[in-house]
Design a protein that fits this description.
341 residues; alpha/beta; Rossmann fold
Length: 341
């Protein structure tokens, strides 16, 4: 695994790269980052040169300077990065937000795309989309006292129990067991890493979640439909539309492990395009990650709990021990503290 970055218009985009073969870029859901794509990348690396990209504003990649008007503000920067890296042809896999970025990119740059694989891509009617945009994205700007943390845990503790998570009524219940607290903790940290602008690509993707855009695609396209997805109903809504013959569904049943094996095998079968393995010699290593100096010498890190109260406890400990840090810096310290083994 090689970590690298490309500078576009003064802004850095980070990638994790591995494998050998045609180029495949993996685009993650919001508010996560490229780390979420690494397990899939490892499975595909025997067939592709896989680029796990941090979407601008997520992970290590520099963000936009203001909220985007649409996804093109992301895909334009992506295209400049791929061109600078010498990627004349590539395949794209995207999940959720990543799927919408893949669609938008392929619409704008069809001659450079060999195939797009859409995971957790859906269609939302205008009324539901408006309701989601109004209620789905609370303000998570870091504040002294850590009072925003209860909103983070409210999201992560309901995001796999209701869809949309903010509509906590039987109509929207997914009727599945709660995730283990360790999984919720992982999701919470990614929300905190994305920070106050966690919703920028997220919102733009929901705005883009329309069958009409998929109908515009001119490149080979696969829409994965897994029965265990939290948005299966809305994937089926997408698949109810008529698409050109190069846009096809691929139905997957089974456990998450079986799903991943089936999806990976299918993607390997579709590999095509120019090899990008020589690119790895041209790309530099990642710079050291920015850190915050903070003191925990007299502190005991609270253990992860199912109700999320450990985050507030940890915040108060860090804030009291490091009074000169502002709220954003305390949040960075909190993330770093829990990232250490």
């Amino acid at each position: 695994m090689k970590c690298t970055c490309i500078t576009v218009d003064g802004k850095k985009i980070y990638f994790q790269v591995l494998g050998k073969g045609p180029a495949l870029v993996l685009l993650h859901p919001s508010p996560h980052n490229a780390n979420m794509m690494v397990p899939l990348a490892k499975e595909l690396a025997s067939t592709y040169t896989v680029f796990c990209m941090d979407t601008p504003g997520y992970g290590r990649s520099d963000g936009l300077t203001e909220p985007p008007k649409d996804l093109s503000e992301y895909t334009t920067r992506m295209h400049k990065a791929f061109k600078a890296m010498g990627l004349e042809q590539l395949a794209l896999y995207g999940s959720a937000t990543g799927a919408q970025l893949a669609i938008r990119y392929a619409i704008e740059n069809p001659d450079t795309v060999t195939h797009i694989f859409l995971d957790n891509a859906a269609h939302f009617d205008d009324d539901l989309r408006s309701a989601i945009l109004e209620s789905y994205f609370p303000d998570l700007t870091p504040v002294r006292g850590g009072h925003h943390l209860h909103k983070v845990w409210d999201i992560v503790s309901h995001i796999f129990r209701y869809f949309p998570w903010c509509f906590k009524t039987p109509e929207y219940a997914l009727n599945r067991q709660q995730l283990p607290k360790e999984a919720l903790h992982f999701i919470a940290l990614d929300f905190l890493r994305a920070g106050a602008t966690y919703d920028w690509a997220y919102k733009a993707a929901f705005e883009h979640e329309r069958a009409s855009y998929v109908q515009q695609l001119k490149v080979p396209t696969t829409i994965f439909r897994w029965e265990g997805s939290i948005i299966t109903k809305h994937i089926d809504r997408l698949l109810s539309f008529t698409f050109p013959p190069h846009v096809n569904p691929f139905m997957i049943k089974g456990s998450p492990e079986e799903r991943n094996a089936i999806m990976t095998r299918y993607m390997k079968e579709k590999a095509s395009g120019t090899s990008s393995v020589t690119l790895l010699e041209k790309l530099g290593d990642c710079a050291e990650k920015e850190t915050i100096a903070y003191d925990t010498s007299a502190l005991e890190r609270p253990s992860v709990t199912p109700n999320g109260d450990y985050l507030n406890q940890a915040w108060k400990l860090l804030e009291n021990a490091n009074p000169k840090l502002n709220a954003a810096e305390i949040q960075m310290a909190l993330i770093d503290w829990y990232s250490k083994s």
